[in-house]
TrEMBL record:
This is tRNA 5-hydroxyuridine methyltransferase. PROSITE patterns: SAM_OMT_I (PS51682). It is an enzyme of class 2 (transferase). Mg(2+) binds at residues 129, 155-156. Belongs to the class I-like SAM-binding methyltransferase superfamily. Cation-dependent O-methyltransferase family. InterPro entries: Cation-dep_OMT (IPR050362), SAM-dependent_MTases_sf (IPR029063), SAM_O-MeTrfase (IPR002935), TrmR_methyltr (IPR043675). Homodimer. Keywords: Magnesium, Metal-binding, Methyltransferase, S-adenosyl-L-methionine, Transferase, tRNA processing. Catalyzes the methylation of 5-hydroxyuridine (ho5U) to form 5-methoxyuridine (mo5U) at position 34 in tRNAs.
Length: 212
């Protein structure tokens, strides 16, 4: 742990037993979920924005959707997950959290998903946390569903530090993904249609506000 992480643990709030169970499962089964610092920062950001609706690309086991819904009692979430096993786990955990009425879960590939099936035509916020090499494609498809003034959040922008490496130092199997992620980051940061910030929190959180 860094000095900051060691210090902030002193102020960490107790989480619901179900959340602890999900964190343990994710660690044991190597399911990628937001770390504590990242999710708590995201919860704080949403408390400032106070959206009524959020679209999530990449449910995994439902961890972030449950955490966000628990922290924002008025928030309604639509979330998409393509992996059958993770989707089943998300269904299980969402039911146990008694959040079925506020979390709509879809099993599909987000890149080919029929958006007319979503419960809302427009969303106040969108959270992209799926295949990192496809962020630009996810953004292009779902950005039109975000209201003007709405915010698009993207997690894992640092990809565990790989984006800081020179191309030749990145493992060969990850190079295309990291190139795509870097290209997306450069594109969105320079795009005047969005007010964009990149936060060095967790594994890197990008915040893009859709301008009028």
């Amino acid at each position: 742990m860094t000095n900051y992480e060691t210090y902030r643990v002193n102020f960490e709030k107790e989480v619901h037993p179900l959340v602890k169970e999900m964190e343990k499962y994710a660690e044991e089964q190597f399911v990628p979920i937001m770390d504590r610092i990242g999710i708590e920062t995201f919860i704080g950001l949403l408390s400032i924005q106070n959206p009524a609706t959020l679209l999530e690309i990449g449910s995994a086991i439902g961890y972030s959707a449950i955490r966000l819904a628990q922290a924002n009692p008025e928030l309604h979430i639509a979330t998409i997950e393509r992996d059958e096993e993770r989707h089943a786990k998300a269904v299980h955990y969402i039911e146990r959290a008694k959040l079925n009425e506020r979390i709509s879960l879809f099993k599909d590939d987000a890149l080919t998903f029929d958006t007319t099936l979503l419960p809302y035509d427009c969303f106040d916020a969108c959270f992209i946390d799926a295949a990192k090499g496809q962020y630009k494609r996810f953004f292009d498809k779902y950005e039109p569903l975000v209201k003007t003034g709405g915010i698009i959040y993207c997690d894992n922008m640092f990809m565990h530090g790989l984006v800081f490496l020179e191309d030749q130092d990145i493992p060969r199997r990850s190079r295309t993904m990291i190139r795509n992620l870097k290209a997306f980051t450069e594109w969105i940061m320079e795009n005047p249609a969005y007010e964009t910030s990149l936060l060095p929190v967790g594994d890197g959180i990008l915040i893009a506000r859709k301008n009028s």
